[in-house]
Amino acid sequence: MADETTPPDNPAGAPPPVAAPRPPAPRPAAPAQPDLAGRTTSAMARKDTPGAPARAAAATRDPDDTSPLLTRRAWMGLAWGAFSAASAAALAATGRFMFPNVLNEPPQQFKAGFPNEYGIGVDERWKEKFGIWLVRTPEDVDLHVSGFYALISVCTHLGCTPNFLSAENKFKCPCHGSGFRTSGVNFEGPAPRPLERARIVLADDGQILVDRSRHFQRELGQWTDPEAFLKA
Ligand code: FES
Protein backbone atom coordinates (compact mmCIF):
# COMPACT_ATOMS: atom_id res chain seq x y z
CA MET A 1 0.00 0.00 0.00
CA ALA A 2 1.42 3.26 -1.11
CA ASP A 3 2.30 5.93 1.40
CA GLU A 4 0.27 9.00 0.59
CA THR A 5 3.01 11.27 2.07
CA THR A 6 5.82 9.83 -0.17
CA PRO A 7 5.92 11.15 -3.76
CA PRO A 8 5.85 8.47 -6.40
CA ASP A 9 9.17 7.66 -8.16
CA ASN A 10 7.98 9.00 -11.49
CA PRO A 11 4.59 10.45 -11.26
CA ALA A 12 3.04 11.09 -14.55
CA GLY A 13 3.72 14.62 -15.89
CA ALA A 14 6.51 15.41 -13.48
CA PRO A 15 9.82 16.76 -15.06
CA PRO A 16 12.89 14.56 -14.74
CA PRO A 17 15.22 15.44 -11.90
CA VAL A 18 18.08 17.82 -12.81
CA ALA A 19 21.54 16.55 -12.00
CA ALA A 20 23.64 18.79 -9.77
CA PRO A 21 26.57 20.52 -11.67
CA ARG A 22 29.85 18.76 -11.21
CA PRO A 23 33.02 20.73 -10.52
CA PRO A 24 35.35 21.01 -13.55
CA ALA A 25 38.01 18.37 -13.81
CA PRO A 26 41.48 19.62 -12.98
CA ARG A 27 43.46 20.47 -16.16
CA PRO A 28 46.67 18.55 -16.67
CA ALA A 29 49.78 20.56 -15.84
CA ALA A 30 51.34 22.26 -18.86
CA PRO A 31 54.78 20.99 -19.79
CA ALA A 32 57.62 23.22 -18.65
CA GLN A 33 58.43 25.84 -21.31
CA PRO A 34 61.92 27.28 -21.71
CA ASP A 35 62.21 31.07 -21.57
CA LEU A 36 64.45 33.17 -23.87
CA ALA A 37 67.49 32.27 -21.84
CA GLY A 38 66.75 28.57 -22.12
CA ARG A 39 65.57 28.23 -18.52
CA THR A 40 62.50 26.20 -17.69
CA THR A 41 59.73 27.54 -15.55
CA SER A 42 60.65 25.02 -12.92
CA ALA A 43 64.20 26.32 -12.93
CA MET A 44 62.91 29.87 -12.68
CA ALA A 45 60.83 28.83 -9.73
CA ARG A 46 63.86 27.33 -8.06
CA LYS A 47 65.68 30.63 -8.70
CA ASP A 48 63.33 32.34 -6.30
CA THR A 49 64.51 30.27 -3.42
CA PRO A 50 67.52 31.32 -1.33
CA GLY A 51 70.82 30.12 -2.84
CA ALA A 52 69.13 28.99 -6.00
CA PRO A 53 70.67 31.30 -8.65
CA ALA A 54 73.97 29.48 -8.90
CA ARG A 55 72.30 26.08 -8.91
CA ALA A 56 69.79 27.25 -11.48
CA ALA A 57 72.45 28.69 -13.74
CA ALA A 58 74.54 25.55 -13.48
CA ALA A 59 71.55 23.34 -14.07
CA THR A 60 70.25 25.23 -17.08
CA ARG A 61 73.56 26.19 -18.82
CA ASP A 62 73.94 24.61 -22.19
CA PRO A 63 77.29 22.85 -22.12
CA ASP A 64 78.09 24.42 -25.48
CA ASP A 65 76.93 27.90 -24.44
CA THR A 66 79.95 29.82 -23.14
CA SER A 67 78.71 33.31 -23.99
CA PRO A 68 78.49 34.69 -20.39
CA LEU A 69 82.00 33.43 -19.68
CA LEU A 70 83.32 34.97 -22.91
CA THR A 71 81.71 38.28 -21.99
CA ARG A 72 83.50 38.35 -18.68
CA ARG A 73 86.76 37.44 -20.37
CA ALA A 74 86.20 40.14 -22.98
CA TRP A 75 85.70 42.74 -20.27
CA MET A 76 88.82 41.56 -18.50
CA GLY A 77 90.73 41.83 -21.77
CA LEU A 78 89.46 45.35 -22.38
CA ALA A 79 90.39 46.40 -18.87
CA TRP A 80 93.91 45.04 -19.23
CA GLY A 81 94.24 46.63 -22.66
CA ALA A 82 93.22 50.04 -21.33
CA PHE A 83 95.59 49.68 -18.40
CA SER A 84 98.48 48.74 -20.69
CA ALA A 85 97.76 51.66 -23.06
CA ALA A 86 97.62 54.13 -20.16
CA SER A 87 100.90 52.78 -18.79
CA ALA A 88 102.59 53.10 -22.20
CA ALA A 89 101.32 56.68 -22.62
CA ALA A 90 102.58 57.62 -19.15
CA LEU A 91 105.97 56.08 -19.92
CA ALA A 92 106.21 57.97 -23.22
CA ALA A 93 105.25 61.26 -21.53
CA THR A 94 107.89 60.68 -18.89
CA GLY A 95 110.49 60.01 -21.59
CA ARG A 96 109.58 63.19 -23.44
CA PHE A 97 109.78 65.14 -20.20
CA MET A 98 113.18 63.71 -19.35
CA PHE A 99 114.68 64.00 -22.87
CA PRO A 100 112.69 66.67 -24.74
CA ASN A 101 115.48 67.88 -27.04
CA VAL A 102 116.66 64.42 -27.95
CA LEU A 103 113.23 63.27 -29.04
CA ASN A 104 111.66 66.37 -30.62
CA GLU A 105 114.24 68.88 -31.79
CA PRO A 106 115.38 68.68 -35.42
CA PRO A 107 119.12 68.62 -35.98
CA GLN A 108 120.65 72.03 -35.42
CA GLN A 109 123.15 71.73 -38.27
CA PHE A 110 122.72 70.42 -41.77
CA LYS A 111 124.53 70.54 -45.07
CA ALA A 112 122.44 72.17 -47.77
CA GLY A 113 124.40 71.14 -50.85
CA PHE A 114 126.72 73.17 -53.08
CA PRO A 115 126.19 76.84 -53.95
CA ASN A 116 125.90 76.14 -57.65
CA GLU A 117 122.78 74.06 -56.95
CA TYR A 118 120.80 77.22 -56.18
CA GLY A 119 119.39 79.96 -58.33
CA ILE A 120 118.46 83.46 -57.26
CA GLY A 121 115.49 83.60 -54.91
CA VAL A 122 113.89 81.76 -51.97
CA ASP A 123 114.43 78.01 -51.74
CA GLU A 124 111.89 76.17 -49.55
CA ARG A 125 113.35 72.66 -49.58
CA TRP A 126 114.64 72.96 -45.99
CA LYS A 127 111.64 74.66 -44.44
CA GLU A 128 109.61 71.66 -43.34
CA LYS A 129 112.46 69.65 -41.84
CA PHE A 130 114.70 72.40 -40.48
CA GLY A 131 112.54 75.54 -40.40
CA ILE A 132 114.89 77.38 -42.76
CA TRP A 133 114.49 79.30 -46.01
CA LEU A 134 117.75 79.41 -47.91
CA VAL A 135 117.85 82.62 -49.95
CA ARG A 136 120.28 83.52 -52.71
CA THR A 137 120.35 87.24 -53.45
CA PRO A 138 122.24 89.32 -55.99
CA GLU A 139 122.59 92.08 -53.39
CA ASP A 140 122.10 91.83 -49.66
CA VAL A 141 120.04 94.54 -47.96
CA ASP A 142 122.89 95.49 -45.61
CA LEU A 143 126.12 94.24 -47.17
CA HIS A 144 125.19 95.07 -50.78
CA VAL A 145 126.97 91.99 -52.10
CA SER A 146 125.68 88.76 -53.62
CA GLY A 147 125.43 85.55 -51.65
CA PHE A 148 123.34 83.39 -49.34
CA TYR A 149 121.57 83.78 -46.03
CA ALA A 150 119.41 81.39 -44.01
CA LEU A 151 116.14 82.83 -42.73
CA ILE A 152 114.48 81.18 -39.74
CA SER A 153 110.79 80.53 -40.46
CA VAL A 154 109.46 81.81 -37.14
CA CYS A 155 107.33 84.95 -37.07
CA THR A 156 108.75 87.59 -34.74
CA HIS A 157 105.28 88.54 -33.55
CA LEU A 158 104.06 85.44 -31.70
CA GLY A 159 105.96 82.61 -33.30
CA CYS A 160 103.70 81.30 -36.07
CA THR A 161 105.19 79.94 -39.28
CA PRO A 162 104.86 82.35 -42.22
CA ASN A 163 104.34 81.20 -45.80
CA PHE A 164 106.34 82.27 -48.82
CA LEU A 165 104.08 83.84 -51.44
CA SER A 166 106.10 83.57 -54.65
CA ALA A 167 103.62 85.65 -56.67
CA GLU A 168 104.13 88.57 -54.29
CA ASN A 169 107.74 87.69 -53.49
CA LYS A 170 107.22 88.02 -49.76
CA PHE A 171 106.64 86.02 -46.57
CA LYS A 172 103.17 86.29 -45.04
CA CYS A 173 102.22 85.13 -41.56
CA PRO A 174 98.80 83.40 -41.47
CA CYS A 175 98.15 84.25 -37.82
CA HIS A 176 97.92 88.04 -37.73
CA GLY A 177 99.00 89.12 -41.19
CA SER A 178 102.58 90.22 -40.69
CA GLY A 179 104.53 90.52 -43.92
CA PHE A 180 108.28 90.23 -44.50
CA ARG A 181 110.34 90.94 -47.57
CA THR A 182 112.63 88.24 -48.95
CA SER A 183 115.46 89.88 -47.02
CA GLY A 184 113.51 89.09 -43.84
CA VAL A 185 112.72 92.73 -43.07
CA ASN A 186 109.19 93.26 -41.70
CA PHE A 187 107.03 95.81 -43.52
CA GLU A 188 103.38 95.12 -42.57
CA GLY A 189 101.35 93.71 -39.69
CA PRO A 190 102.17 93.52 -35.99
CA ALA A 191 105.60 91.85 -36.23
CA PRO A 192 107.95 94.23 -34.37
CA ARG A 193 111.21 93.27 -36.05
CA PRO A 194 112.71 91.32 -38.98
CA LEU A 195 112.95 87.56 -39.19
CA GLU A 196 116.13 86.15 -37.70
CA ARG A 197 118.92 84.61 -39.72
CA ALA A 198 120.88 81.46 -38.88
CA ARG A 199 124.63 80.92 -39.12
CA ILE A 200 125.71 80.01 -42.63
CA VAL A 201 129.26 79.03 -43.70
CA LEU A 202 131.02 76.82 -46.21
CA ALA A 203 131.93 73.36 -44.90
CA ASP A 204 135.30 71.73 -45.64
CA ASP A 205 133.82 69.78 -48.51
CA GLY A 206 132.53 72.96 -50.17
CA GLN A 207 128.89 72.48 -49.21
CA ILE A 208 126.75 75.12 -47.53
CA LEU A 209 126.52 74.45 -43.79
CA VAL A 210 123.56 75.94 -41.90
CA ASP A 211 123.59 76.09 -38.11
CA ARG A 212 120.29 76.93 -36.41
CA SER A 213 121.85 77.05 -32.96
CA ARG A 214 123.19 80.54 -33.66
CA HIS A 215 120.83 83.38 -34.57
CA PHE A 216 121.53 86.86 -35.96
CA GLN A 217 119.14 89.79 -35.46
CA ARG A 218 119.19 92.82 -37.74
CA GLU A 219 117.95 95.25 -35.07
CA LEU A 220 121.08 94.35 -33.10
CA GLY A 221 123.38 94.98 -36.08
CA GLN A 222 124.17 91.25 -36.38
CA TRP A 223 123.34 90.76 -40.06
CA THR A 224 126.78 92.09 -40.98
CA ASP A 225 128.46 89.31 -39.01
CA PRO A 226 130.69 87.21 -41.37
CA GLU A 227 128.71 84.10 -40.41
CA ALA A 228 125.31 85.67 -41.01
CA PHE A 229 125.89 85.88 -44.76
CA LEU A 230 127.77 83.64 -47.19
CA LYS A 231 129.28 85.62 -50.04
CA ALA A 232 129.12 83.87 -53.37
S1 FES B 1 102.37 85.43 -35.10
FE1 FES B 1 102.81 86.17 -37.08
S2 FES B 1 101.64 87.96 -37.22
FE2 FES B 1 101.20 87.22 -35.24
What can you tell me about this protein's structure?
- There is one protein chain.
- The N terminus is likely disordered.
- This protein is elongated.
- Strands 1, 2, 3, 4, 9, 10 and 11 form a seven-stranded antiparallel β-sheet that branches.
- It has five helices and eleven strands; from the N terminus they run H-H-H-H-E-E-H-E-E-E-E-E-E-E-E-E.
- Helix 1 runs antiparallel to helix 2.
- It has 232 residues and is an alpha+beta fold.
- The protein binds FE2/S2 (inorganic) cluster (FES).
Layout of secondary structure:
Elements: H1 41-47, H2 52-60, H3 67-98, H4 100-104, E1 109-111, E2 121-123, H5 127-130, E3 132-137, E4 147-152, E5 163-165, E6 170-172, E7 179-181, E8 186-188, E9 197-202, E10 208-216, E11 230-231
Helix pairs in contact: 1-2
The structure holds FE2/S2 (inorganic) cluster.
FE2/S2 (inorganic) cluster is lined by residues 155, 157-160, 173, 175-178, 189-191.
